[in-house]
Amino acid sequence: MKIAVLVSGNGSNLQALIDAQCMQHWSGEIVGVISNKADAYALERAKQANIETQVIEHKAYPHREMFDDAMHHQLIQWGVDLVILAGFMRILSEKFVKAWEGKMINIHPSLLPLYKGMHTHQRVLNTGDVFHGCTVHYVTAELDAGPALLQGVVKVAQNDNANTLAKRVHELEHLIYPQVVEWICNQTIQYQSGQALFKGKPISKPLQLCQM
Ligand code: GRF
Questions:
Q1: Residues with catalytic roles
Q2: Which of 24, 93, 189, 198 has the greatest number of CB atoms lying within 10 Å of its CB?
């Protein structure tokens, strides 16, 4: 399976995927990294791992669709089977999402369907939730709403602030994202007609890894 990772920033999830690729012997390979920002540190991480990089700056395109088309062409050129969004901070057009339906996953820092969108850690604290975490899900046209696959769960401590929570959630992201990719590579997870399957059975509730 040929994998591309789309990034915009630090790329700690990309690093976790690069490390796991070496350690876990996936039947997949990260063949390229695309960033919409030329100064994303994620690009350095890819270069250090000898992975091809492409900067496709959204600012260079007058319309979202044109930017997405440029990414699409690069992905096709690399022969990509799986697209991984790892801190990619652009909303994707419906056309792009349709083209990669069932072949594109994202990680979001909340227990979806709770807290779609931004500033999830602070919103969890404001609400006073007991649990928080992260979710790997297939990408569909609706933001942060595609079939959820695996979640990492942390308990919110009394003295947590948005930074301490973010740190613990991030650590869990680095565990669950490579796990999902391994499962997709070995077909433990599959996507059929808008539904995610685990070992051939529909995932009605995402699997959970709890770190208390
Ligand atoms: C992560 O918190 C992820 O959940 C969100 O963007 C952040 C990316 O972090 N989608 P990094 O660039 O992988 O360090």
A1: 108
A2: 189
